[in-house]
Structure formats: C-alpha cells, structure tokens
Amino acid sequence: MTTSSNSNGDYTAFAGRARHATKKSAETLKRGAKTLTDQANVVAALPTIDLTQPVQRYFEYLQKAVDFNRDLATQWAELVTSWSGSVREQSLQLSSIVTDQAEKVADLTTRQAEKAEELAKEQATKVEQAEQEQAREAKRVERAQAKQAREHAREPYEELTKAELADQLSERGLPKTGNVDELIERLVNADNA
C-alpha cells in the first residue's frame, strides 16, 4: 500500500507539473501570437517589411513547444510502461488529457502559423504593388522628361522657315523633303546622333 501511495503522490506531482507546463506553453503561445500581431499592425503602415526575424522567432518557439511535448510524451510513455493496474488506467486517462491539450496547442500553433503566412503574403502583395506603382511613376516621369527634352531640342528650329530648315539639312547632307515638322525632326535626330 505504501508503494501505491508513493506512486499516487509521484503521479499527482507529475500531473501538476505537466498541467503547469502546458498552461505556460499555451500562455507563451498567446503572448507570441499577440506580439506577432502587434508587430504586424505596426509594420502594415510601412511600404516594405522584413518579417524574417519575427518568423524565425515564432518557429523557434514552435520548435521549443514541439520539443517540450516530445519530452513530456516520452516521460509519460516511460511511466505508462512501468505502471500497472489502476495506476496505468489513471495514467492513460491523464495521458489522454495531456494529448488533448497538446492537440489544442498544436491546432492553435497551426492557426497562428497560417495567420503569419497570410500576413506575409499580404505584405508581399502590398510591397509588390508599391514597387509596380513606383515603376509606373518612374516610366511616366521618364516619358515626360524625354518629351520635354525633345521639345527643348526643337526650340531652335521652331522659328525657322521651311527654306531655312531645308538649307540646314542641305548643309548636313540630309534629305530636304517633307513638311516643316518632318524637317525639324530630322534636324533634331541629327543633333542627337
């Protein structure tokens, strides 16, 4: 009877530690998810984001949780193997409870990982859209500058008559045929060549 009493005391102490460890694991997971969410809300205002470090920390936490659950399950397996009779039945019931808790933690962890992935995808999409918008704006500015440069290059020839334009083309050995705009374009192209 003394051995059973000692086993029950050990069992109760171990169950208390397991419950406490599981509770701490769940609290840590909630804090990690809140931290990740808070960081994501701050980062959402920025045009670019580097989620590498928070994601690495998140998965390091997940690895620690998996390691903890593996160690706990291993200890339980060792205890279950050594116990017999009613102690074994009680252990199996407690093991079922711990397994349920581990599954809940795993489900919560999976949901948090999915949320982190969704956030990363959303941020990547926003960054890509911002880059595309910047590229479009750069092209628009480039076209406007090119148009302005072209107009500036045409200015010296705008006041000339068709005959004066033809004379300048003749001096450069270029064709003199076409309307005034064509002659001006030909001169501007020759200047830029």
* Residue runs with pLDDT of under 50 for 5 or more positions: none
Q: What value does the average pLDDT take?
A: 83
Q: Kindly name the structural category.
A: mainly alpha
Continuous helix count = 5
H and E order? HHHHH
Number of domains: 2
Radius of gyration, in Å, reads 38 Å
First and last CA, distance = 106 Å
Count every beta strand, where a strand is a DSSP E run of 2 or more residues.
Answer: 0
Share in β-strands: under 5%
Shape: rod-shaped
Q: Strand count, sense and closure of the main sheet?
A: none
Q: Roughly what percent helix?
A: over 70%
Task: Explain the overall architecture.
The mean pLDDT is 83. The protein has helices at residues 2-43, 52-82, 85-158, 162-171, 180-192. It contains five helices and no strands. With 193 residues, the chain is an all-alpha fold. The chain is rod-shaped. The chain folds into two domains: 2-142, no CATH class; 159-192.
Gist of the model:
The protein has 193 residues and is mostly helical. The chain has five helices and no strands.
Question: Main traits of this protein?
Answer:
193 residues, mainly alpha, 2 domains
